[in-house]
Design a protein that fits this description.
Elements (H helix, E strand, L loop, with lengths): L12 E4 L10 E18 L6 E14 L3 E5 L6 H9 L6 E6 L3 E4 L11 H12 L3 H15 L14 H13 L5 E5 L7 H16 L3 E5 L11 E6 L2 E4 L1
Parallel strand pairs: 4-8, 4-9, 6-7, 7-8
Antiparallel strand pairs: 1-2, 2-3, 2-5, 9-10
Helix pairs in contact: 2-3
Amino acid sequence: MTGNQASPTPSSTRTTPAAAGRTAPETSLEVVLAATGVAKAYWRGMWPARRRTPVLRGVDLELAAGEVVGLVGENRSGKSTLMKILVGELAADTGSVTHGGRVGYCPQEPVVYERLTCDEHFELFGRAYGLTDESERASRALIYSQLGFERYAAARADRLSGGTLSKLNLGLALLADPEVLLLDEPYAGFDFDTYLKFWDLVAQRRQAGRSVLIISHFVTDEERFDRIVQLRDGQAVPR
C-alpha cells in the first residue's frame, strides 16, 4: 500500500457524463490519472518452450477528478497488473502513467505487519505519508468511524478476522486523503453493512472531487459508477 506524491497534474481534460440515474449535464473535468499505451508481458512456461505472453497490449485509460470508475475483466485479463503499474509497484514494458496528486492504493492481498496493532499501522503509514501527528490521528478516527472497527484499534493484525483486515487495508489507503484512490477488490470479506458503508464513503469522495478506480470481478451496482471499463484482449474498452 503506497501513497505517492506524483508529478504535476496533467493539463488535459475529460468530458464525463453523469452516472446512470443522474441528471447532471456533461462536464469537462481535469484528468488526474492518465495511462497511455501501457503494455506488459510475462515469461511463461519451461525452457525450451518458455515464451513471453502479452497481458496488456497498449492500454489507454484516463480518470477525471471526482469520477468513480469500475475496472472489470475475466480472470488473468491483467486487471491487477494494470493497477500495480498505475501505482508504480510494477514497471510497464512500454507506455507511460501520469497522475496529478497523492495516490492511495489498496492491493487485493493486504500488506500488513502481523505484530503491529491497527493504531500502530496508522501511525507508521502516517509518518511514511509525511502527515503531522494531529492530522494522522484525525484521519484515523474518521476512518474507524466510517468503516466501524475502532474497537480493534489495539488488536494486532495477526488476530484480526478477514473482514477487519480488509477494513485496515482500505483504511491505510485512505489515510492521507489521496486525490486518486486505486482499489483492487476492496470489499472482499466485508459483510453487507460494511459493503454499504464502503459505498457511502466512495460517494463522499466523489462529492469532494476525489477520484476512485475500483477493480471488481463482477459489478452488481452499476449505478454507483460513473462508467465501467473492461480489459479485453489486453486493451481497455468501454462497457
